[in-house]
Write a structure and sequence with these properties.
This protein has 21 helices and 33 strands. It is of the alpha/beta class. A 5-stranded parallel beta sheet has the order 27-31-26-32-33. Strands 3-16-18-17 form a 4-stranded mixed beta sheet, with helices on one face. The longest helix has 16 residues. Monomer.
C-alpha cells in the first residue's frame, strides 16, 4: 500500500487486464456484527481487510467475541445475543458502518459503553438514530456536540426497560445506516412484533436491501411494507449460517468499470472478478449508469467485462439516490463526456467521510472543469479539448472515494500527470487500490519518470536513492547489486564466471528474479542482502561486468525496472548510459576523506578492523579505475545536478533531491 505523502500518477494512456476486487465494506461489517450476535461459530470468507473492518473486529474482541483470523477468512464465535463484557471504551475510527449498528445493538442490550472516533467521525450525524433509541427507552448521552459522537450508552447497570408496543420512528432522509442499525439490533429484543416506521423519504434504499438480505441469511425475516414500515417478528433469534462468503465491493468496481469505459480504446477489456450483475449490492446498478454513458458491459454471476463503447462518453442527467457512493465515479467520467452531466438526489454526499459534493467540485475545478453544486446535486461541464485540462494536486480529505475517483483523471488527453495527496486513505476500503490500478494501466515508457542518483563508492548514493524512492512511492534499482546478484545466481547454477560460460550466464541474467524491497535485495524468495556484500561477491561482480553479453542482458533487465508509477535508480552510469533521458539526474559525491570516514564507521560497527588511511587510499584508487574505464566510465551526466554531501546529512541530501524533483513538477 502506498503510504507516501502523495502519489504522482504520470499520464496514463490505456488499460486492459483482470482485477480481483476486495470484499464489500458494507457486507463485511454487517456480516461481522451479525455473526457476533449469533450463537456458535460463523466462518466468514473473503472478508475485506481495511481500516473499517479492523475497527469492527477490534470492537468485537473487546466485547468478548472469539475472533480467529487467517488471511481473508475469519471465524467469529458469537455471543448468542448476550453480552459477556458490559463495560468498554470503543474506538470506531471513521467507520460509519461500525459505529451506527454497534451503538444500536449495545444500547438495547444494556451495559456501560463509550463510542468515539477520529475528529471527522465526531462531525458525522448520529442524532436521528439516538432519537429512535431514546424512544425505545435506551439510555444514550452525547459527550460532545449534541447530534454527533462521542456517545455514552447506559451506565446504570441494569438493562434498559424497552417500550416495544408503539412503532419506533426513525428519519430516513439523512442516512440509511440509522435504519440498518435498528433492523440489526431489534431482533435481539423482539419478544413481540417490533415495528419500525421511516419518517420522510428513505435514501440509499439498496443498502437496506443488503441489510434485509443478510438478516435473512442469519435467520431473521423482516416484513416490509414499501420503504416506510418494517416488522421484525416476535421470537426472532439470530442463527449462524455456519459459513458465508463476502461479495467483492460493487462500489470499488465502479472505478474499474469507468476505467474500461475511458481507457480501453479500440482493443482490450477490463475484466472484474468477484462481483457480477447478480450482486445483492445496490451499487452494482452503476453498470446501468455506465451503459447510459456509452460503456460496453458484459457480465455473469461473479464477473464483469468492460470496454470503451461510445466516445466521447455521453452526458447524462441522473437521479443517483440508488447508487450514492458509486455516483462519485460518474462525476469524474463526466469530464470525458460530450456535454454537461448532472447528478441529482445526492444530499447524502454531504454527510459522508467529508462533504463530498464540495470536495468533488473543488478538485474538479483544479483540473480545469466548470462545476456547479447545490444542496443535493452536482453539474459537471466536460473538458472537451486537451488544452482545457490542468495538472493538479488533488486534496483527498482523508476520503478513500475521492482518492480513487480522481486517479481516473490521469487518463486525460492532454498527457498531464495527476498528484493524489495522502494516497493511503484508500485503506478504508481498498488498501491495494493504486497497485491494482497501475497493474492494468499502461503508458508510453517516456511518461514513466526516472530519477538517477550516480556517484562514486561510499558517497551515500544508495541510501539516498532508497529514501527518495520511499518518499515518492517509486520502484528502486540498485544497479551495482545487479552484477553481484548475477554472480551469485551463476554460482548457484554451477556456472564458472568466465568466457566459456558467458552465453549461459547472459541467458540467466535476462530473467533474473531480483527485486529490491524493504531495504533488502531478494533473489527469488531469498534475502541475499548480506551474501552479495562480501569481498568475494564484489570480485565476482567485477568478473561478470567484464562479459559483454552479460552486460547487455543486464542493461535490458535494468530497463525493465522502469515501471509505473516511477523509478529511482542508483549506480555509476544510470544517467549516462542506462537512462540517458531520465527526468532528473543527480551526481552525488563527497570528499575521499569524508567517504573513508563513513566507510570506517560502517566496518567498525560490523566488527571489521581497518584504518581510515587505508580506506581512503582504496577509495581514491577505485575512483581512478572507475573514471578511466573504457566502458561506462564514472562521470556526471552533462545535465546532472551536482550534490556534494561532505558537510550535510543523508536526510538533508534526500530533501535536496526531492526539492529539485518538486521544482520540475507542474502542480
Amino acid at each position: 500500500m502506498f503510504s507516501t505523502a502523495f502519489l504522482d500518477l504520470p499520464p496514463l494512456e490505456g488499460a486492459g487486464g483482470t482485477v480481483l476486487l476486495p470484499g464489500s465494506k458494507s457486507i463485511s461489517n454487517r456480516v461481522l456484527l451479525l455473526a457476533a450476535l449469533s450463537g456458535g461459530t460463523t466462518t466468514v470468507h473473503d472478508l475485506l481487510d481495511s481500516d473499517d473492518t479492523r475497527v469492527m473486529l477490534a470492537a468485537l474482541r473487546q466485547l468478548g467475541c472469539g475472533v480467529a483470523q487467517q488471511g481473508s477468512t475469519v471465524e467469529i464465535t458469537g455471543l448468542d445475543g448476550q453480552l459477556k463484557v458490559t463495560q468498554a471504551d470503543l474506538f470506531m475510527g471513521n467507520a460509519g458502518t461500525a459505529i451506527r449498528p454497534l451503538t444500536a445493538a449495545l444500547a438495547v442490550l444494556g451495559g456501560d459503553f463509550t463510542l468515539h472516533g477520529v475528529p471527522r467521525m465526531h462531525e458525522r450525524p448520529i442524532g436521528d438514530l439516538v432519537d429512535a433509541l431514546r424512544q425505545l427507552g435506551c439510555l444514550v448521552a452525547y459527550t460532545g456536540n449534541p447530534g454527533y459522537p462521542p456517545l455514552r450508552l447506559g451506565g446504570q447497570g441494569a438493562p434498559p426497560r424497552l417500550h416495544l408496543d408503539a412503532p419506533i420512528r426513525v428519519r430516513g432522509d439523512v442516512s440509511s445506516q440509522f435504519l440498518t442499525a435498528l433492523l440489526m439490533a431489534l431482533p435481539l429484543v423482539a419478544r413481540q412484533d417490533v415495528v419500525i416506521e421511516v419518517v420522510g423519504e428513505l435514501i440509499s434504499k439498496p443498502y437496506i436491501e443488503i441489510t434485509l438480505n443478510l438478516l435473512a441469511r442469519f435467520g431473521i425475516t423482516v416484513a416490509r411494507e414499501g420503504w416506510q414500515r418494517f416488522t421484525i417478528p416476535a421470537g426472532s433469534r439470530y442463527r449462524s449460517p455456519g459459513e458465508i462468503h463476502v461479495e467483492a465491493d460493487a462500489s470499488s468496481a465502479s472505478y474499474f468499470i469507468a476505467l474500461g469505459a475511458i481507457a480501453t480504446g479500440d482493443s482490450g477489456t477490463i475484466r472484474i472478478e468477484g462481483v457480477g450483475e447478480a450482486s445483492i449490492q445496490g451499487d452494482i446498478r452503476f453498470v446501468e449508469a455506465a451503459r447510459l454513458m456509452g460503456a460496453q458491459v458484459a457480465g455473469g454471476p461473479n464477473w464483469l467485462e468492460i470496454r470503451r463503447g461510445t466516445w466521447p462518453l455521453k452526458a447524462i442527467d441522473l437521479d443517483c439516490n440508488h447508487i450514492p457512493d458509486a455516483a462519485m465515479t460518474l462525476a469524474v467520467m463526466a469530464l470525458y463526456a460530450d456535454g454537461p452531466t448532472t447528478l441529482r438526489n445526492i444530499a447524502s454526499w454531504r454527510v459522508k467521510e467529508t462533504d463530498r459534493i464540495a470536495a468533488m467540485a473543488t478538485e474538479m475545478r483544479k483540473l480545469g472543469a466548470t462545476v456547479e453544486e447545490g444542496a443535493d446535486f452536482i453539474r459537471v461541464q466536460p473538458l472537451a479539448n486537451p488544452a482545457d485540462w490542468r495538472a493538479a494536486s488533488i486534496h483527498t480529505y482523508d476520503d478513500h472515494r475521492v482518492a480513487m475517483c480522481f486517479s481516473l483523471a490521469a487518463f486525460n488527453p492532454a498527457g498531464l500527470p495527476v498528484r493524489v495527496e495522502d494516497p493511503k486513505c484508500v485503506a478504508k476500503t481498498f488498501p491495494d487500490y493504486f497497485e491494482t490500478l497501475l497493474s492494468v494501466s499502461h503508458t508510453a515508457t517516456r511518461h514513466i519518470p526516472v530519477i538517477c542518483v550516480d556517484g562514486p563508492t561510499a558517497s551515500g548514493k544508495g541510501t539516498v536513492a532508497v529514501a527518495v524512492a520511499a518518499r515518492l512511492g517509486y520502484h528502486f534499482l540498485d544497479s551495482g547489486a545487479m552484477y553481484r546478484v548475477t554472480a551469485l545466481a551463476a554460482s548457484r547454477a554451477g556456472l564458472a564466471i568466465d568466457t566459456a560460460h558467458e552465453a549461459a550466464i547472459a541467458t540467466l541474467a535476462q530473467t533474473l528474479p531480483v527485486r529490491f524491497e524493504g531495504g533488502k535485495v531478494w533473489l527469488a524468495g531469498d534475502d541475499v542482502t548480506e551474501q552479495i556484500r562480501t569481498e568475494e561477491a564484489g570480485m565476482n561482480a567485477s568478473r561478470v561486468s567484464a562479459l559483454p553479453s552479460v552486460r547487455t542482458a543486464l542493461v535490458a533487465l535494468q530497463h525493465s525496472f522502469r515501471r509505473l508509477p516511477g523509478l529511482v535508480a542508483d549506480g555509476r552510469d544510470m544517467g549516462t548510459v542506462i537512462f540517458p533521458q531520465a527526468s532528473l539526474k543527480v551526481y552525488l559525491t563527497a570528499s575521499a576523506a569524508c567517504r573513508a570516514e563513513r566507510r570506517h564507521k560502517q566496518l567498525i560497527s560490523k566488527g571489521i578492523s581497518t584504518t581510515i588511511d587505508s580506506l581512503r587510499a582504496d577509495l581514491e584508487a577505485r575512483d581512478a579505475r572507475d573514471s578511466s574505464r573504457s566502458v561506462s566510465p564514472l562521470k556526471p551526466a552533462q545535465d546532472a545536478l551536482l550534490l556534494d554531501n561532505s558537510e550535510i546529512s543523508i536526510t538533508q541530501s534526500v530533501d535536496q533531491v526531492l526539492a529539485w524533483w518538486e521544482g520540475r513538477q507542474p502542480f
